[in-house]
Predict the 3D structure of the following.
Amino acid sequence: MAAALLANTLYSLGFVLEKRALTALPEVTIRNPARLLRLVLGSPLWIGGSLALASGFGAQLVVYRTLPIAAAQGIFVSGLVLLVLLSARLLGEETTGRERYALGAILAALLMVVLSLKEGSDTVSRSAPYQLILLVCVPSLAGGVWLYGAAERRTRHRHRAPTTGVEYGVAVGLLYGVSSLAIKGVSSYLTSSGLGGAVAGLLKSPYPYLLLFTGAFGLVMSQAALQRCRASLIVPVCTTVTCLYTAVLGTLSFGEALPHDPLRLALRLAGTVLAVSVLLAMPKHDQPPPPTPSQPPVATKELTPP
């Protein structure tokens, strides 16, 4: 639990620092990834945010060794509250009433998942068939890249309402969901006896290569989306998709059983359904800024000929 809360804090701080750094940089785009990397690597603030995210990755490895996948995802969602607070404080972003209700519903979903936990009765799986992992992950990666490209094409249309970033968040969330499954797979090798054997076994698995792909594409896609959308909305959407993806497909892929107690099972399923419903109900477009009032015409004195 402590490692999960630490991961939440590091992830929230990292995203906010990266967003603040991106607002001071020229516009970046996935069509020119080399320029994007050159710009962000020249920003000390962005590097600080990236180090915070990398530290959160380390804390996440500890979580997956001690908690079932579904339970861990429910706790990770709690970081959304801290993210919204930091976004308002450090970025000046304001959430609408509808978005605040949505975040409250996500916290209720988190509470349901936490109440469904029972120490000593939930199984923590250590491995999954590689073929099944690839069958789940490869279509998800393709779908995430396609959805992001479709969102990019739509935003280039003229007279389109400003997007909130929901589509970007879903696309990046799919990539990070695959990354989360890969992190779970990597954590299983930390219990192997001997460093050499653990490294050799890890390199024979698909997990490091999935992490490289999601790391490279996720970095470019998330930074471009984060620059043009509000962090207080795109990151919660991304986090929700990642958590749901990992909780559902990770539980099935790694063979972790759901609770047998009917009440605990109902709480865990209800929390998942509530989180999905909130995601589908979130607004897809920002409200356009109110028009500035036009100045009344200046009265001119009519000149009459002498």
The radius of gyration is 22 Å. DSSP finds twelve helices and no strands in the chain. The mean pLDDT is 77. Residues 130-155 form the longest helix (26 residues).
